[in-house]
Amino acid sequence: MPAANLLRGKTALITGGTTGIGRAIALEYLRQGSNVVVNHLGLERDQHHLFSLVAEAESLKTSNTDPNVTIGTLDHLAGDISNPATGPALVAYAVSKFGRLDICVSNAGICQFAQFFSITGDLWSRTVRTNLDGAFYVIQAAARQMASQDPLPTSSSSWREPQRGAIIGLSSISALVGGGLQAHYTPTKAGVLSLMQSCAVALGHYGIRCNALLPGTIRTQLNDEDLADDQKRTYMEGRIPLGRTGDPRDMVGPAVFLASEELSGYVTGSQLLVDGGLFVNLQ
């Protein structure tokens, strides 16, 4: 786990933040001192995820006994990121609650495996609207806010120019390889990677860093059913040099690194692959 309070005083927005990778990142950002607004769909069937996240965030505060460690505050707002109005609404809400926005993690996405010939127009458009269009709307709104605000003050001994924000787009190893059951999904993740590269160029002179995180096979609610097949899971683990599928907690260190000006202040336009070595062992 990263050292505490690397993100103290910052505000982060995380889409898809109540489950899986987004949830793990949200909790670690709170531990690092950042206030966090998570976005979720607000569906009744998913309320238990939100309630348990809120409870865990409160537990972090009440269990903290170190006066030198600040635990951030969690808030949340429902909304479908495929709606162009949701991104600006999320950013406005975060600013109304915490006064500014310093970190945006575009994490929300869907992945429904399908044979190529069975991919319908509806499945294609839903996947693109959520994974790529939604990422663009949220990132654009976040960048507008970051560009308009003053950077947080840095220590007097810092030799870096102050920065206005960090944006992280959750891409995937699927951006780099094909998938026979993912012909509608892999293009969206390649699109997120390309979007972050272009944003790095477009937003660098505003002091906004933009990077992509590329998870490998991480066990989340999106692939639990697929990995429940013992034969398939064993095959997959045999191809991963570290010998196991990933856990959402494997993503938190890289997410803190990319969000922290202290750790990655000269990192932008990069792609950080977190896959246990799977990509280099694809043969």
UniProtKB/TrEMBL annotation:
Protein name: Short-chain dehydrogenase
Matches recorded under PANTHER family: (3R)-3-HYDROXYACYL-COA DEHYDROGENASE, SHORT-CHAIN DEHYDROGENASES/REDUCTASES FAMILY MEMBER
Keywords: NADP, Oxidoreductase, Rhamnose metabolism
BP terms from Gene Ontology: fatty acid biosynthetic process; rhamnose catabolic process
Keyword flag NADP: yes
Keyword Nucleus among UniProt keywords: no
MF annotations from Gene Ontology: oxidoreductase activity, acting on the CH-OH group of donors, NAD or NADP as acceptor; quinone binding
Organism: Daldinia eschscholtzii
Origin: domain of life: Eukaryota
Entry's family note: Belongs to the short-chain dehydrogenases/reductases (SDR) family.
Family annotation (Gene3D superfamilies): NAD(P)-binding Rossmann-like Domain
